[in-house]
Amino acid sequence: MIEVSELTKRYGDVAAVRNVSFRCEPGTVTGFLGPNGAGKSTTMRMICGLTPPTSGSAAVLGVPYRRIANPGRHVGVLLDAAAQHSGRTGRETLALSAQVLGVDRERAGRMLREVGLPPAAARRRVGGYSLGMRQRLGIALALLGDPRVLILDEPANGLDPEGIHWMRTLLRGFADRGGTVLLSSHLLREVEAVADRFVVISGGRIVAQGDKGELLTTSGGTFVRGLDPGALETALAEAGLAARRCGPDAFTVEADAEAVGRAAAKAGAVLLELRSAGEGGLEELFLSLTAEPKENAR
């Protein structure tokens, strides 16, 4: 169980995270989604006690992370796969962590095999690893203490398609055995196949959360694409219709299709697509929710 309540982090006058609240239940994978710079990593660092919040709170297994005795036996964390000692071998890295956690050294060998690092790779120094190999080693470290919770920040970076499939299978199995997984990514398709619930953050704020069905059900409005997106945007604004970009030539509009069509026709804006916003699936909704305001996108 992970519980986040009104977490806020300010750096001077800049609010990196603002009033973020969500829950991750046992037996589920929660996809924490948002574009680069949205506040995902800052939120996860606050959950893990590495960054003190300006206000709000976070609890893992019912208590703040820093109050968990020997936390690696209860919570597996991977926040930065590159933050590993480059002079040690993969086997040495896991063996040392096993000693610190009080875990049988044999488990270190099992974890190396489970994440797909063969003996030859385990004998190599981490400084010679590819990013994908570092990610596998980082996941092995997260699993080493046989935790009940996994907190993983962008774990698919550097993995090839086979590696991404392997990771999804591993995380799905962990959750199906009753574990809790919080998985961040800026790429929706990485987590859509494995996540039970989604928390979408943009500009430091939660803009949506729920399972796929809930998110698509609540995504009202109209999706529209135009041959000349600038002319279409002007037409919508002149008609008093609130619109957000969700692609290079597309908008979601807080109005029905007839109102959007009439506004475009009045301005002579040629439409390429006009339909209910929920019909485009989760990816379109994600792009709509995380699109930057026009003045920030230039």
Automatic annotation (TrEMBL):
Pfam families xrefs: ABC_tran
The ABC transporter domain extends over: 2-228
User: Which Gene3D superfamilies does the record associate with it?
Assistant: P-loop containing nucleotide triphosphate hydrolases
- Which SUPFAM superfamilies does the protein's record reference? P-loop containing nucleoside triphosphate hydrolases (SSF52540)
What positions belong to coiled-coil segments?
none
Alphabetical keyword list: ATP-binding, Nucleotide-binding, Transport
Q: Which domain of life is it from?
A: Bacteria
Q: Which InterPro entries match?
A: AAA+_ATPase (IPR003593), ABC_transporter-like_ATP-bd (IPR003439), ABC_transporter-like_CS (IPR017871), P-loop_NTPase (IPR027417)
| A molecular-function term among this protein's GO annotations | ATP binding
Cite the PANTHER family for this sequence. Answer: ABC TRANSPORTER, ATP-BINDING PROTEIN (PTHR43335)
Q: Which family does it belong to?
A: Belongs to the ABC transporter superfamily.
Q: What is this protein called?
A: ABC-2 type transport system ATP-binding protein
UniProt source species:
Thermomonospora echinospora
Query: Lineage, please?
Result: Bacteria, Bacillati, Actinomycetota, Actinomycetes, Streptosporangiales
